[in-house]
Amino acid sequence: MATKLDGKVSGTFKVVADAGLQLGYEKSKQENTPVALQIVKDCMEIAKTASPPADPERAQVAGFEQQADRAMQEWQKKQVNETPSLTLSRNSARKGQKVTVVGKEFWANEMVDITVHATLVAQVEADGNGSFSASVTIPQSAPPPSFDTTITAVGKSSVKSASAPFHTA
Questions:
Q1: Domain boundaries, the chain
Q2: 124 to 38, 46, 53, 77, 151: CA distances (angstroms)
Q3: Residue 155: is its pLDDT beyond 50?
Q4: Residue 114, exposed/middle/buried by CB under 10 A (0-12, 13-18, 19+)?
Q5: CA-to-CA distance for 56 and 33, rounded, in angstroms?
């Protein structure tokens, strides 16, 4: 990911470029990157629309937009390359017993729903690296011992999901 969206302008674009662009980029490191980058692009479009057609700073704004586009493309490529995974402390347990679920490659700081078969058993927050570890109790509603099922984790923001095979003992 780009380390910074660089550049400053003055006049018509100063407020948008200095505040909107840098704030949007800083927010993108902590929150939803595609939304933050789209806000940056939208701010630049508003500034262009409000400025005279001959404003010489339009070229600089186009450069900012290209940086935002590149950052978005890099972010998308990274998301494709970072497929989430789920590891269980054991792949079998009785109803009422605990299983540790470890997830990786989710979005940083997003909430993740963990289900056993179709029952929500936990909601956890991924850390700054998109990883989490949670101890979950196998619910009474879990399928019978002869029925193979899964434990699944789904990111609330990213909608990234990972499953691991599981069955009740």
A1: 11-81, 85-168
A2: 28, 38, 50, 26, 14
A3: yes
A4: buried
A5: 29
pTM beyond 0.70: no
Tokens representing 34 are 């595609």
Q: Is 26 left (phi over 0), alpha (psi -120 to 50) or beta?
A: alpha
State how far the Cα of 15 lies from the Cα of 166, in Å rounded to an integer. 54
Predicted confidence (pLDDT) per residue in 55-87, tens digit: 777 777 777 778 777 877 887 787 677 889 999
Range of 17-21, 27-31, 47-51, 152-156 with top mean pLDDT: 152-156
Q: Quickly name the fold that domain 85-168 has.
A: Immunoglobulin-like (2.60.40)
Can you name the residues that pair with 100 across neighbouring β-strands?
135
